[in-house]
Amino acid sequence: MAVTSAADRVLDYDEAVAKFDPVMGLEVHVELHTATKMFCGCPTTFGAEPNSQVCPVCLGLPGALPVVNEKAVESAVRIGLALNCEIAEWCRFARKNYFYPDMPKNFQTSQYDEPIAFNGYLDVEVEDGSGGTEIFRVEIERAHMEEDTGKSLHVGGSTGRIHGAEYSLVDYNRAGIPLIEIVTKPIVGAGERAPEVAKAYVSALRDLLRALDVSDVKMEQGSMRCDANVSLRVRAGDDPRGDAQLAVPFGTRTETKNVNSLRSVERAVRYEMSRQAAILDEGGTILQETRHWHEDTGMTTSGRVKSDADDYRYFPEPDLVPVAPTRETVDELRGTLPEPPGLRRKRLQSEWGFSDLEMRDVVNARAVELIEETVAAGAGAAAAKKWWLGEPSRRANAEGQDLVSYAAGLGFAPAHVAELDRLVTSGRLNDSMARQVLDGVLAGEGTPTEVADARGLELVQDDSALEAAVDRVIDANPDIAEKIRGGKVQAAGALIGQVMKEMKGQADAGKVRALILARLS
Amino acid sequence: MSSLSREDVAHLAGLARIDLSDAELDKMVGELAVILESVAKVQQAPIADVAPMSHPMPLTNVTRPDVVRPGLTPDEALSGAPEQELGRFAVPRILDED
Ligand SMILES: [Zn+2]
Q1: Interface size between A and B, measured as CB pairs under 8 A
Q2: Mind telling me which SUPFAM superfamilies this protein's record contains (chain B) (predicted)?
Q3: What was the ipTM of the complex prediction?
């Protein structure tokens, strides 16, 4: 039970990392967004009426038999492949026995020593300390299939009605939803950057799972959850990746549960490092235990003392036959993998000609997809970045929303930005007029052209250069001019092209056509 | 296989949420020793060439398509519950939980 106690002593972070070297292990649970549960046909809709998505299988009623969801196995294999894992040729489910009311069967169907995917890695990007970025490789121990548990609502003792004691109310809608648990190998060598690495890893994993389209990955709704194992060992040598440091045995670890946002992952690791450092610095010992993260106070508190793995008395699940993905199936699924998010960003950065710093701003603003769509709609990359990271970003920030949801909420689309950019490049608007138009679009007054029309925004244009060019081209092509005079209006196309060339593209083709026809009518 | 100690039995009883008195523990240690001894006879079977088996049928990849099937209504689901409240199963609180 979590005990609220006086705050633990913590060592200043800089002092902590000067004296100790952190080792982390991250366990991420991700709920798949399959239509049905792992072992039964119940739906998985979030937020449904309590106990409305249950059946004899997920309620653990006697005699009910589970059958594996084919799509969940495929998703597990795809996740494994995307994490550069080997895929088991043959593996079994196992029963993890425990007595909590959140699993009515008194066991959770999981995998034990035969995970479906193992031995992989995920490269994540972290700051290199001098303004650039570098790749930090996080090695993956395993990814295995299991099922989620029910949701408990705890009712306090004073109002308790079951024999006057505290009690819990359980909703089994979530029990049995397919879950993939992804476990890293011990992450060593991160040194003082450990909290940043932890956050970068969970962030990269979230992007990857989103790109795979296997999960909603909404940490705030619990469809992606992280447990952070942290231990400290004494510092040896200056290099956290040096031989001297790697030779030092690991310290005792704690497992911090309930870490449900990217920012919390970073804060929880940092807090736990400072807390353990204070204990070790005084010559104390770390208790191997589960700790609970509290978002509000930014602290962890002691949970239960960790039980040994064999306390769960795992054994092969007799009601489910082994899963043995054929190599053909694995290859087929490999063919469905999307471009890895990291590589995709590199490719887009080079296509757009952005510097590392510019690209980081774009990524941090969650504007990658928006810019990509804006460019596809005809805008230049630099202009797309300028518009998205300007006013819309500022307003999204002020509203505490991310840019994507903010824009979606307003109905403000990449096509609008591309249109705005066209109004500028065609010479109708200058920059300050375009900003006014953007204001109008964000205020819901219509498309950029509608706003510009309604507000009467248009540069007074000096057409003398264009008229001179039209005259020159007509004089140079008397034959074509004659045809047009004779009524062959479609011949104007050849002249329009030449005028546009003379104007280096800085003219409106419609206007050029009108001028030519006026001269030759 | 070695026989169970008193601590082993107490540990297993704890995991299975069975409350045993000291006298019952003593009795169980003796009784379980006899059972284990009998069961240990299977270890004399000549199994050097036999692969471990968890499933009697040589089947793999028995799956179902990801298609929703009707389950129980909340009323049906809760019909066998000794206690219920707010459409949920009411259960004694487990001390370890947060
Ligand atoms: Zn079900």
Answers
A1: 145
A2: Glu-tRNAGln amidotransferase C subunit (SSF141000)
A3: 0.82
